[in-house]
Amino acid sequence: MLDLIRNRKFNVYKTLNIVNPLIPIATDEMFLRTVSNSDDCILHLYTLPNSAIIGAPDTRVPYFEQALFAFYRNNIIPAVRNIGGLGIISDKGILNLSIVMNKPKDNFSINEGYELMTSFIKAIFPEGANKIEAIEIANSYCPGDYDLSINGKKFAGIAQRKIKEAVVVSIYISIFGDQQKRANIMKDFYEIGIDDQEVRYKYPKVDPECMETLENLLNKKFTLEDVFERVEKVLYGLDCDLEKGEYTEAMVEEYNEIFEQAKERNESYLEGK
After folding, report:
1. By CB distance 3.0 to 4.6 Å, which of 9, 20, 115, 141 could disulfide with 186?
2. Domain that holds residue 18
């Protein structure tokens, strides 16, 4: 699957410890809308301090307003995203990575997007490649068919969004930190938000024991800088050309419009308007 990005040019954007979680959400959307004007790919790497990125279905739990206190009492900022999936926790130990590009071939499927990211992660962490499985971990938060796990413990989840011929494949990777605490916060969110009420949507019954950090799973210490170097090594090994991304005036204008829309949507969800 990695041949789909071989010999491509990547503009690399790295934004760390962004205070407002809406910023990378809007940034990825801006990349998705603007990449169609270029054959270049975009690699977006970012971290967030103490944020909960939740999906639209999460806002429909019966007691959503009360459930938000699972975040607030842990000093976590919630934000509603426009890409698939349910809620995840993000902090300085979680690396978020997005590949944004025009579809690498005419019949590029959703599953191929997931498989591309799975292969990319296995290449970044070769010491765990033979152990990494892409299967749903049903009792994790934000479960999906392409949850990445080792020995049944999830450490990453993949999401995808397409607009016309452009696609963004995103992943969050639990590199280090307290994954059980993160899972317990999402567990509290659903328990408070549902409170034994009958719901049609299939929300996960989060079991913190089925999630873990990559650091613990591989029994190896990582820093984010280590991981950045690994990412670059993989891309250079694929004969890709890497350049530091620059924000053009058109991109900034597009971003500002998207951010305002994201802000209005987020306020509408969180304030129940």
Report:
1. 141
2. 2-271
